[in-house]
Write a structure and sequence with these properties.
Blueprint lengths: L15 E3 L1 H12 L7 E8 L5 E8 L7 E5 L2 E5 L4 H4 L2 E8 L2 E7 L3 E4 L6 E3 L5
Parallel strand pairs: 1-6, 2-5
Antiparallel strand pairs: 2-3, 4-5, 6-7, 8-9
Length: 126
């Protein structure tokens, strides 16, 4: 009788990745947050002159059907309505002379408005 062993599960690709700078900044923000949070929630919302805007907020716990993943020690909760728009995105943190900001480097983004507050995104294929 042959005993079959389970094949090791291949890790699913992460829909969103963090740069080192973004992971470090989020860890600092979470450490100084006014409450107890499990991670950060990312998504997209309708609005702006280009059609959509990225969202980021504190997350205490997973909402129903959310994708929950971890990258570089940071737990990320992804709104289920946004997952197809965010697949392949790298979240970065940029510090410049006059300010600092999080940037979504999204291969599904097709355009952005002049002010940079809203974007046009096509859902990922396949």
């Amino acid at each position: 009788m042959e005993i079959q062993t389970a094949k090791p599960r291949r890790e699913r690709p992460k829909p969103v990745k963090l740069s080192e700078a973004a992971a470090a900044r989020i860890a600092t923000i979470m450490a100084n947050a006014p409450g107890q949070y499990a991670g950060v929630r990312v998504g997209v919302t309708n609005g702006g002159c280009a059609g959509m805007s990225y969202t980021m907020d504190y997350a205490s716990e997973a909402k129903p059907f959310e994708e929950v993943m971890e990258d570089k020690g940071v737990k990320i909760f992804i709104d289920p309505k946004a997952i197809l728009f965010l697949i392949g995105t790298e979240l970065d943190f940029i510090q410049e002379k006059l300010g600092a900001r999080f940037v979504f480097n999204n291969p599904n983004q097709t355009s952005a408005c002049g002010c940079g507050e809203s974007v046009a995104i096509t859902p990922a294929a396949g």
